[in-house]
Amino acid sequence: GQQLNQSPQSMFIQEGEDVSMNCTSSSIFNTWLWYKQEPGEGPVLLIALYKAGELTSNGRLTAQFGITRKDSFLNISASIPSDVGIYFCAGPNAGNNRKLIWGLGTSLAVNP
Amino acid sequence: KAGVTQTPRYLIKTRGQQVTLSCSPISGHRSVSWYQQTPGQGLQFLFEYFSETQRNKGNFPGRFSGRQFSNSRSEMNVSTLELGDSALYLCASSWDSGIYNEQFFGPGTRLTVL
Hints:
The complex is a heterodimer of chains A (112) and B (114).
Chain A: E1 4-7, E2 10-14, E3 19-25, E4 32-37, E5 44-49, E6 55-58, E7 61-65, E8 71-76, E9 85-92, E10 100-102, E11 106-111
Parallel strand pairs in A: 2-11
Antiparallel strand pairs in A: 1-3, 3-8, 4-5, 4-9, 6-7, 7-8, 9-10, 9-11
Chain B: E1 5-7, E2 10-13, E3 19-24, E4 31-38, E5 42-50, E6 53-57, E7 64-68, E8 74-78, E9 87-94, E10 104-105, E11 109-113
Parallel strand pairs in B: 2-11
Antiparallel strand pairs in B: 1-3, 3-8, 4-5, 4-9, 5-6, 7-8, 9-10, 9-11
């Protein structure tokens, strides 16, 4: 079945640094979604990508839909302490696009 | 507008028991999806309900069931609990499925099975 591989698994950075994380799949996705989850909360959608090559920003966050349609990247610039959380990529299942397939997440810690 | 609410927030049960979790969607939303979240498996889709009908189902055993009421509130039930059922159970609501930028998650119910 479809799987999403996220890396790195965790990151510990200094405030002000830029962050990059990625998500890859062995099969093609037509939509890539990036979420953030904070402790005690459900995931919150950050960015949605719908077209190969698409580059979309949301404040300090920028995400790209890979040209091969098998990967996506999320960058956070000038990190701040409130960026702490777990970042997930997700995409609709090819056989049934109402089911989301999720990566295992990248845990981000920011040292102020 | 009130967000998605889930009750209870925390629950401790023992093996063999059953449990019912509740999800109240955002007003006007008719689609409710349920997910199981564990550290090792991440978020796994359980099922989706729309207008009181189950529209999609994930790959979970029959011990996991759900339903949706006419006011769109949804419940999920797990019977004969196993240790491996310990997880955070999340629900998400939207006015229709596949509308990800208008789908919102609740805070989850943390279930611990002893």
